Amino acid sequence: MPKDHGIGASPKRREDVRFLTGKGQYTDDINLHGQTYVHFLRSDVAHGIIKSIDTSAAENMPGVVRIFTGADFEGVGGLPCGWQITDRHGQPMQEPGHPVLARGKVRHVGDPIAAIIAETKEQARDAAEAIELDIEELPAVVDMVSALAPDAPKVHDELTSNLCYDWGFVEENKAAVDEAFEKAAHVTTLELINNRLVANPMEPRVAVGDYNQANDESTLYTTSQNPHVIRLLMGAFVLGIPEHKLRVVAPDVGGGFGTKIFHYAEEAFVTFASRQIRRPVKWTSTRSEAFMSDAHGRDHKTKIELALDADNNFMAIRTDTYANMGAYLSTFAPSVPTWLHGTLMAGNYKTPLIYVNVKAVFTNTVPVDAYRGAGRPEATFQLERLVDKAARELGVDPIALRRQNFITQFPYATPVAVEYDTGDYIATMDRMEEIMDLSGFEARRKASEAKGKWRGLGVNCYIEACGIAPSNLVGQLGARAGLYDAATVRVNATGSISVMVGAHSHGQGHETTFPQVIAEMIGIDESQVDIVHGDSSKIPFGMGTYGSRSLAVCGSAMVRAAEKVIRKAKKIAAHLLEASEADIELKDGKFSVAGTDKECAWGDVTLAAYVPHNYPLEDIEPGLEETAFYDPANFTYPSGAYACEVEVDPETGKVTIEKFAAADDFGNVVNPMIVEGQVHGGIAQGIGQALLEAAVYDENGQLQSASYMDYAMPRADDVPFYIVDHSCCTPCTHNPLGVKGCGEAGAIGSPPAVVNAVIDALASGGKNVPHIDMPLTPHRVWKAINQ
Amino acid sequence: MYAFDVTRPKTVAEAVAALSGDEAQALGGGQTLIPTLKQRLAAPATLVSLSAIDEMKGVCADGGTLTIGGGTTHATVAAEASAYPALAALAANIGDPAVRSRGTIGGSLANNDPSACYPSAALASGATIVTNNREIAADDYFQGLFTTALNEGEIITAVKFPVPEKANYQKFVQPASRFSLVGVFVAKYADGVRVAVTGASENGVFRWKEAEAALSANFSADAVEGLTASADGLINDLHGDAEYRAHLIKVMTKRAVAAAK
Ligand SMILES: Cc1cc2nc3c(=O)[nH]c(=O)nc-3n(C[C@H](O)[C@H](O)[C@H](O)COP(=O)(O)OP(=O)(O)OC[C@H]3O[C@@H](n4cnc5c(N)ncnc54)[C@H](O)[C@@H]3O)c2cc1C
C-alpha cells in the first residue's frame, strides 16, 4: 500500500491551487505607491566604443523622471563573480569588470547602456528612442577558437587576451594519462559541440527597487532562486548597503532553471536608482530582452578521447574543452565548466586515469552560466556519446561495454577528486531494460521499417553530483561563498508549525514536500505545517535553490532544527508527565512514557511552551523554535540509466521520440509524484536540447535565434509519454534523510540517449554516421544521411 | 506600442471610409499586426478593426465554389469548410488555438508571409481574391515577399475557391515557429493540376510548373519522382538551406499527391 501521508506519500502540490487559479503573487504583481518604470537602452551591436550618449532631448520627453548612464555609476561597484578559478599554472583567472551600465565599450548585443525612468513604461520607451547614441562598431569575437588567436580583437582591453583561464584537472595526472593513451589497444575520439541554450523560464525576469527614506531601508523584489545570495552580492559588492538595511524578496517565481540564480545588473540598477530618485522603480523584462540579457547555458566545444585495453576495459580519458563565458563573468560562470564538469568525467565507470583541460573564453555574446544540470550535462553528454561510439567502433554491445566498466564498489574515489558514497549502476541498468521492454526492440524496429522509418535505440547512464559541499572544500576550489543552508522550525502555541527555509521554490514543490518531512517526524497532519521562503527578512539565512540541493541541504537543516525542537519538546513532556526525559517517546503526535499508558498530546506540550505555568523554567526557556545550519559532508550522487527509441524519417530527416524510459536512483524519496514531475520536466528540457534548441550567433555577434520564431522550445507533442521509475534506491550515507536530489537528472541523462538513438537509427538504415551535433534538427539529420 | 486610435466599423463601406484617413491600417485578427506594433515596427495612427463587419464573415459552398468571408477566422474555416476538406485541414493546422480563433484568412492573404499556409491554397486553387472594389486572380495577386496586388486601404472582403476534385496540403514545419519550412498544396481539377509551394522561396509562394505538367498527365506520386525542384532563389536560413528546401518540395509534393482526397 502506498503511504497516504508523510515521507513517501504523494499528496498533490498544494501551491498549485494558487498557481492554477491565477492567485500566484509574482514579482510583476507587485505594484507600489508612486512606482516608476525603467526601460533599458541596450546595445544593438556586439562590440563597440561608446563615443557619446546625448540624453538631453530624451530628458525633456513627457513623463521622464531621470535618465542614468554608466557615468552615474562612478564609485559604485561592478557585478561580482562568485567563483575564482586557479589555472594550470597556479594563476588566478582573468576577471574583468562588469559594470551595471556599460562604460566606454559595449560588449554584447543587449548590454545595457542607459536606463530611462519614467511614469509609464511606454514613456520610458519613447524617451529611449530620443537618446542620441554614437557607437563606433568594432569587429566582434564570436567563435571561441578564433577568440584565442593572437590577433583576435579583445573583448576587454585591460586583459592580456580573451582567455579567462586554462584549467587542467588533475594536472598531476596528465603525464600518466598521456602514457596510457600510448599503450592503448584502441582509442576512440569524438569532437562535439554542446549547444548554447536559453533557459526561457515562463516568467521573464522582473525587479522592483523600493527605498524607504524613513528608515533608510532598501527592498528589492526580484525573480530570484536565492534572495539571500543576491542580498549578499548586491549589498556588499555593488551598492555598499549593509544587510540590515537591505531586504530581498523573491515571491512566487515562475521557473528559474539556473538563469535566476545570478545577480543581474537590472536588480542592482532598480535598487540603486530608487535610492536616488526616492521612488520605487520597476523593470519587467520582455521576452526579447530575456533572450539577450538572461545568462545563457552550455556552449562547450570539446574533443574527448577514450583509451581502452585489449579487453575493452577503460584505461584513460582525456578531454579538451573550450567553454564560452560570454562578454562578462556571470555570478557562477567559471565554476560550471570546471568543478561542476571536470569532477564528473568519471561518470559511472572505473576509468583509473582522467585528464580534463578547459579553456574558458570571453566572446562578444551574452554571458553564459549555469543552466539545469550546469556542467554535469556537458560531462555526461561527452562521456556517454564517447562510450557509444567506442562500442560501435569495437563492434560490441553498448550496454555490455558499459556494464563491464561500471563502478561496483562503494565508496569509490574517482581520479577526478570526488568520492561517490553509494550507487548501484547495475540495478538501474537492469531496471531500465525491464521498463523499456528492451527485449521487444527488434520487433519494434521491424515494425518501423515496414512503415519506411528507421528506428534506433539509444542508452546511457549518468551520474550527478548534487548539493555541492562542504563549504571548506568549495572554498579551496575558489567559491567565494559557503554552500550550507539554514532553516528555522517555529512551533506555534497551538502546535501548528512554520518552517523558515533558505531554499527557494520556483516550481519544485517545496511547499508540499518540506511539510511532509516535518509531519512524518512529529506525527501531525501536513496541514499543520507551512513553509516560509523567499524573503530575507523572514528567514534566517539561505543559499537558495540550484544544483538539486534543496532537500539534500536545506531539508537536512530543517531536519536538524526539527530534531532540536523535538528534544526540547520531550523535556517539556517529561515535566508534564512527571517522567524521565529518557523515557519519553514521540509517536503520531503524542508523547508517551515508555512502558506506561501515560501520554500527552503534541498540542499540550506546545501550549505549555508558550503558556509556561506548569513548566521547568529553571532548566529551559519558554517557546519552541529552533534554527539549524547544515553544511553537508559531501555531494550526493544520484545516478541512473536512460533509454530512448526514435524513429527517423529518412526522406526528411525528421526525428520522433517513440519511447523513453528513465530508471533513476535518487536515494530516499519524499514525494514520488513530485519526483516524477521533476524527471519529466528535466527530460523535456533534455529533449529540447537534443532535438530543438540552439542559441545561434552570426559572425557579427547578432543573435539569430532571438525569439520563439527561431528558437525552438519543446512543445507537448515533441515529447513522448515517459516511463519513469525510481525504485532503485541506495540512500545517501551522509545526510539525515538519505536523499540525493532529483531536479536536474532528467536534463542530464536524456540528451545522450536521444542522440545515441538517432545514430543507431541511421545505422539501421545503413548510414554509419559517427556523430551529429545537437540540436538534431531535420535539416542536420537529413544532411548527415545524405553526406 | 506607440499610441493609436481604434475604430470598429460595422460595414465594409464604413471601413473603407475609415481607411482613407491619415495613416489608418486595417486590423484583422491582429495575430501578425499586434506583435509588430508591440515591437514598435509599425506606427499607424488609427487601427480600423474589421472584426465587427458581419458581411465579411462566414463560409458558403455554392455549386463548385467555396466562398469565405475575408474576416473569417481560421477556426471557423477549419470547422465549416467541409466542402473543401484540404482547405479545412490547412486552417486547422495554422498556429495554435488562440491564433486560429483570432487570425483571419483576409489578414493572412493581405500579409502574404513567405511561410504562411493560406497563400499556397489560394494559388493552388486558382482562387479569386475579392476586395471592396474588384476581384483579383490569385495568379496576379501574390507579388513577392509580403507584397500583394492590394492597393492602400483596399480590403479583402472574400476569397472564392473553386472546389477541386482532389487536393491535399503537406506542411513540413519549421521547428520553432511552426510556420511552414516548406508547404505544398496540390489541387486536381478537371482541366489540370496546380501545385503551389510556400515557405521555400525568397519570393514567397510560387507554382511548381514542372510538377503541375507531370501531374496533369499522370496524377500519381511516381509522376514527380523524376523531377527536381530547383534550389535557385530558395531560402537559406537557420532551419534549412536551399538544397534541403528544394528536396522537401519534392517530398511534400509526392506526399500531397498520395494523400489527396
Ligand atoms: C503563434 C503564431 C503562429 C502562427 N502560425 C501560423 C501558421 O502556422 N501558418 C500561417 O499561415 N500563419 C500562422 N500565423 C499567422 C496567422 O495566421 C495570422 O493570423 C495571419 O497571418 C494574419 O491574420 P490576422 O487576421 O491576424 O491579420 P492581422 O495581424 O490583423 O493583420 C495582418 C496584416 O493584414 C492586414 N489586414 C488584415 N485583414 C485584412 C483584410 N481583410 N483586408 C486587407 N488587409 C487586411 C493588416 O492591415 C496587416 O497589415 C501564426 C501567428 C502566430 C501569432
Describe what this molecule looks like in 3D.
- The complex is a heterodimer of chains A (787) and B (261).
- Chain A has 787 residues and is an alpha+beta fold.
- Chain A is 28% helix and 22% strand.
- Chain A has 19 helices and 28 strands.
- In chain A, a hairpin with a 5-residue loop joins strand 16 and strand 17 (419-420).
- In chain A, helix 15 crosses helix 16 (602-610).
- Chain A is globular and about 85 Å long.
- The relative contact order of chain A is 0.12.
- The mean pLDDT of chain A is 97.
- In chain B, helix 3 (74-80) runs antiparallel to helix 4.
- The radius of gyration of chain B is 18 Å and the shape is globular.
- Chain B is built from eleven helices and twelve strands.
- Chain B folds into three domains: 5-49, Uridine Diphospho-n-acetylenolpyruvylglucosamine Reductase, domain 2 (2-Layer Sandwich); 54-162, Uridine Diphospho-n-acetylenolpyruvylglucosamine Reductase, domain 3; 166-259, 2-Layer Sandwich (Enolase-like, domain 1).
- In chain B, the strands form three sheets. A five-stranded antiparallel beta sheet of chain B has the order 4-5-8-6-7. In chain B, strands 9-10-11-12 form a four-stranded antiparallel beta sheet, sandwiched between helices. A three-stranded parallel beta sheet of chain B has the order 1-3-2, covered by helices on one side.
- By secondary structure, chain B is an alpha+beta fold.
- Chain B starts with a strand and ends with a helix.
- Chain A binds chain B through residues 122, 125-126, 288, 651-652, 654, 691-692, 694, 696, 704-705, 708-713, 777-779, 782-783, and chain B through 1-3, 39-40, 172, 175-177, 181, 238-241, 244, 247-248, 251.
- Flavin-adenine dinucleotide binds next to strand 2, helix 5 and helix 6 of chain B.
